[in-house]
Amino acid sequence: MTTIEHWIGGAPTRGASTRTAPVYDPAAGAVRREVLLAEAADVDAAVRTAAKAFASWGDSSLSQRTKVMFRFRELLVRREDEMARLISAEHGKVVEDARGEIVRGREVVEYACGIADALKGSYSDQVSGGVDVFNFRQPLGVCAGITPFNFPIMVPMWMHPIAIATGNTFILKPSERDPSVSNLVAELYAEAGLPDGVFNVVHGDKSAVDAILDHPGISAVSFVGSTPIAKYVHEKATATGKRVQALGGAKNHAVVLPDADLEFAADHLTAAAFGSAGQRCMAISVGVAVGEAGDALVDVLKRKAEAVVVGPGDDPSSEMGPVVTAASKARITGLVASGIEQGAVPVVDGRGLTVPGHEDGFFVGPTVLDHVTPDMDAYREEVFGPVLAVTRAATVDEAIALINANPYGNGTAIFTSSGAAARRFQREVQVGMIGVNVPIPVPMSYYSFGGWKDSLIGDSPIHGPEGVRFYTRAKTVTSRWPVERQRPDAALTFPTS
Ligand code: NAD
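Above: inputs. Below: predicted complex with nicotinamide-adenine-dinucleotide.
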């Protein structure tokens, strides 16, 4: 069996690790590889290596850094097919969807290719006689990223291209469930000419995460994952004086008004609820049918959910693959059962689905639960599976109130032909990313990504301009030239002009 090793200082290594975790092919339900689980000594080795590399990388020129990014981007294009298949094999998502996340991640690399522009400072001439003020931003040092299983290449790419392009060195602790692609990314960086030690991968579980959070040599931690762990990471890392960005879970509602094109809305709800088997932080997990949209919408959703082709991710005819683990499948089907027990109506029930030839795979079919109410577990919990809960609201106000009462605030969408209703919705809803007739409003790489409330702990969204701000700190210089001794402005009172 292949053992996936860490990548430290430009080469794979076992380090001090003795523990491993199994890595599954979710479509077969079988273990295919194992991954090393780091001890604190491995994290320490990575930090020492990254700190040494920072001494020169932090001082490298902008053109040196952007050259690496351009080459890295070309290699990502060239190796896209191989990467997509590797992601699909460990995550379960269909290959075409894996390609999608590679492309969206690559867009952050493209943003990083233009880092020279994003890093421009400002300059104020002659703020006082002979005095100018200017500022510029410098890297922090060693930064770390801790990432979830659901986007094994895209989410880390929300972090490391910007951290590295701004002059930092980076340690990635990817999810232990689909770790392989991170090592391939490390190889591509090396091929692109990135000096050894600038990008490192340490695989592991809670022990590795705790070692990162406790390590005094790490300046900043970026985390994306579930809300309880995001809160833990934020609390622990800020307590040790680190900068932290911590993005959490979600419960994303799509509101459908009676004036919407129901076929169009249902097509998009189906894609957004069941794509990647619902394992996206921006997946639509609640459809809010307003007024008389209700029954008609549910009828169309039923037809479309039943038509989704479920199968292994490497079969080109599959539209939806399995979920990531057996435990995940058990949690999802348990929440569907509890929803039905608590009064929801199963319009489509995917719990019994088997895929011929893949009987042991972790498959759950598309599921639509109607008449879900906010007190049900299937509504309160983040299901993170192919389950669309439909709830009813009498008015737009009621729909907005429902969304605003939810503890999460990652993404939301409205489907309508009324500009006035859409405008009101986007102004009043307490959510960070909003779609108008767009179901999954993930901002482009030159904007920043981040939810509100329990979907983002602290105050730092990720990538785009916020990413540049996060991975750098500003210096502001006030300078006087020429120095004129005879000028009588060296007073003991505070200077005012
Ligand atoms: P997770 O929180 O279980 O794991 C995320 C990372 O934390 C992994 O690297 C994991 O090894 C580590 N981890 C897990 N348990 C830990 C513990 N007890 N102590 C320290 N570290 C621990 O998340 P997941 O299941 O891999 O991913 C799914 C979750 O991520 C969902 O909640 C989803 O909404 C969220 N997510 C959010 C966004 C966003 O942008 N807001 C994006 C993607 C995923």
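The mean pLDDT is 97.
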